[in-house]
Amino acid sequence: MSYPRRGMHGEVVEDLGRRIVAGDPGASGQLDPAELGRRYQVSHTVVREALKTLAAKGLVDARPKRGTYVRPRGDWSLLDADVLRWRFTQRGDGDMLRDLAEVRAVVEPAGARLAAARRTDDDVAALEKAYEHMAATAADPVAHTEADVAFHRLLLAASHNELLECLEVVIAAALTARDRLVHSTGERPGFSATHRAVLDAVRAGEPEAAESAMRDLLAQAERDEENL
Q: Is 155 helix (H, G, I), strand (E, B) or coil?
């Protein structure tokens, strides 16, 4: 569950959520809504709604007589878009990078294979547009990242498997965080070629070639991360 970060409610959710995920001692254990209101200079209503949003993400809970408290890490909704993003803001969260790289290695080759077998003309046109946008934004890390994420989302959509499509939130979070690190100084060598190979195989309707090309792309991504 993601939400627009507008207004005081969004600001409280964003800051408190980040602090909880980062393990900030000041945002752990029991939380005092009145103290949160004073800290953020917002009303009780804003605090209550912010805590409801964080509760929906598995980060906090409220119980009679016990009060509001931060839930154990194992209870968090780890596939929630915001929780993923907050974890990625911790540059040192190497375990998270590893876990998501492993998920991509399982999901994306299969997605590429299915996309090559099931893609429509509209799917191919959308992928080509995303690829062209990546090429046109190589000098702009933010726009380049958005285009890359769009390409991989469209690839999963082209699989026409609803369950695979649901995993796009994980892929998008992984790519966004990775690209911001890897492409901060410009596009890496081989980036365009590996994506082109996937696109060409999907367009040609060659499942095995598409899967192989995606594995090559992920291997290149791993090498790029190792060279950071």
A: helix
Q: Measuring CA to CA, which residue among 155, 159, 162 is closest to residue 214?
A: 155
Is 144:176 a contact under the CB 8 Å cutoff?
Answer: no
- The CA distances from residue 64 to 28, 52, 61, 221, in Å, are 18, 15, 10, 48
Cβ count within 10 A of residue 89: 12
For tokens 């933010």, name the residue.
Answer: 142
CA distances from 80 to 58, 83, 188 (A): 9, 5, 29
Q: What is the pLDDT of residues 89-115, one digit of tens each?
A: 665 456 777 887 888 899 999 999 999
Beta carbons within 8 Å of 81's beta carbon, 6+ residues apart: 1, 2, 169, 172, 173
What tokens were used for 75? Answer: 């209870």
- The 10 Å Cβ neighbour count of residue 81 is 18
Separation CA 59–CA 14 (nearest Å): 12
pLDDT tens per residue, range 43-96: 999 999 999 999 999 999 988 878 999 999 999 998 888 888 888 766 545 677
CA distance 135 to 29: 47
- pTM for this structure? 0.74
Token pair belonging to 33: 């809504």
125 CB contacts (<8 Å, ≥6 apart)? Answer: none
